[in-house]
User: What shape does this take?
Amino acid sequence: QKEVEQDPGPLSVPEGAIVSLNCTYSNSAFQYFMWYRQYSRKGPELLMYTYSSGNKEDGRFTAQVDKSSKYISLFIRDSQPSDSATYLCVMSDRGSTLGRLYFGRGTQLTVWP
Amino acid sequence: DVKVTQSSRYLVKRTGEKVFLECVQDMDHENMFWYRQDPGLGLRLIYFSYDVKMKEKGDIPEGYSVSREKKERFSLILESASTNQTSMYLCASRAGHRWEGGITDTQYFGPGTRLTVL
Assistant: This one.
C-alpha cells in the first residue's frame, strides 16, 4: 500500500462550484501536510501547508486535516477556470531524513466556464 | 523569490546515450532533489543531496547517478539512456519554512525537463 493515497480523477466542475479534493495516508508519524498545485507543463508549486489536525483558510482555499482518520482535504470555493491544474497532497514526518516529502499521485481538476 | 532552473525543457535522446540534466537554484539551499513524474505513478524520488558532494539514493536510483560539485548545482546523469527512462524530470530545492507551527520543509520545484528516449 502506498503511504499516501489520492484519487487521480479527473474531476470536472463548472465555474463557481465548490471543489473537494481528498487524500488518505497510513503513516501516523506524518505531521506536516501540504498541497501543491501543478499547472500543465510546469513544476509543482506550494499552495498551502498545515500542521497537525485542524483547518487553515487562505482566500478561496481551505485545507483540513483529521489525524485521527488519517484524512486530509482541500476545499476550493467559487472555483475559477484558472484553478484548472493537478493538485498534489504532500506530507512530511520531519523524523525522516532531512525533510523528505511523500506525494500523492495528484488529482487533475478542470473548471469549465 | 526562490528560483530553480533546469537546463532544458524538452530533450530527445537515443538509447544508450549518456544524458546530463542540470539544475540550478539561487537561494543557497543545502538540500536538492531529483524526481521523475509519470502518469498514474506520481512523483518518485530518484536521488537527493544534503550538501556539496553529499548524495543519497531515493526510491528509484537504478540507472541514474548524480553530481553535486557546487552548492547551487545538482546534476542528474543517465549513464546509458533506455526507453523506460522517458519521463518528466523535476528538480527541487528545499528550504526550512518558519511559521506558527514551527518549521516545516518546503520544496521549490523547477519547471521540469521532458525527456524522450528513442
Summary: The two ends of chain A are 37 Å apart (CA to CA). The mean pLDDT of chain A is 90.
